[in-house]
Amino acid sequence: MTAGAFARLVERASAGGRDAADACTLCAAPVGDAHAHLVDERSGKPRCACRACALLFERDAAGQGRYRLVPDRRIRLTGVRAADLGVPVGLAFFVVEPDGAVTARYPSPAGATAWSVDPDAWTAATAGCAELASMRPATEALLVNTAKGAAEQWLVPVDDCFRLVGAVRRAWTGLSGGDRVQAAIEAFFAGLAERRAGGDRAAQQTRKGEG
Fold first, then answer.
1. Residue 204 is inside which H or E element, if any?
2. Is residue 24 within 8 Å of 31, Cβ to Cβ?
3. Residues 7-27: pLDDT tens digits?
4. Do the beta carbons of residue 177 and residue 109 sit within 8 Å?
5. How many CA atoms lie within 13 A of 130 on its CB side?
6. Which terminus of the chain has a smaller tally of CB atoms within 10 A, N or C?
7. Helix (H) or strand (E) segment spanning residue 154
8. Residue 74, pLDDT score
9. C-alpha span between 38 and 54 (Å, rounded)
């Protein structure tokens, strides 16, 4: 999953800079830093998309064609017990693969380390949280943070998680990560809350306009 476009997200976040070389997979138009992503159903790899091409896939949320658009929704969850999912660390994200298997990953100085999640444990977790049950395969993730007394549970676009991986790798020092890592994680989750608030305001304005 870190191949291709998502790998560049990790590298870009790790370096703290931008990569202007990305181009839309479908039309080859240049794309900006905050562009959309598609997941290729045939290869499982992410692809960059300009806004015009991304609009073509917004109505196909179930991914009936070759590509699935990575959604732009961020929902703060409650009631998800990360410990029941076999999380050995305080910070991890979970993705439902196209074949239905669930993969968990946690940020590390080497990138994202992965392991498989017990299917019964995942079924139990989704049964207790309607928002989590709506998580879209390959394109969205459950992101949990229980480190240092935190209690963060989010449904996020999967590319947000790889940006977090890059931020952790950039901030990591020594064997345990150092103080900079915790500051980077806290800043990331604060940014999630801000982006969610901004998305809520935009949705309200759209509903008012349609009314």
1. helix 179-210
2. yes
3. 555 555 555 544 445 788 889
4. yes
5. 0
6. C
7. strand 152-157
8. 93
9. 8
CA distance to 127, 137, 153, 186, per residue, from 81 (Å):
12, 20, 9, 20
**Amino acid in position 6:** F
Residues 6+ apart with CB under 8 A from 146: 82, 87, 90, 91, 152
- At which residue do the structure tokens 């993730």 appear? 141
pLDDT at 1 over 80: no
pTM metric for this prediction: 0.76
Residue pointed to by tokens 């999380």: 87
- What are the Cα distances from residue 112, in Å, to 7, 108, 210? 10, 6, 42
Handedness of CA 142, 98, 14, 8 (dihedral sign): negative
pLDDT at 102: 94
**Residue-averaged pLDDT of the chain:** 78
Q: Which residues of 152-187 are buried (b: 16+ CB within 10 A; e: fewer)?
A: bbbbbbbbbbbbbbbbbbbbbeeeebeeebeebbee
- Residue 24 in tokens: 């839309």
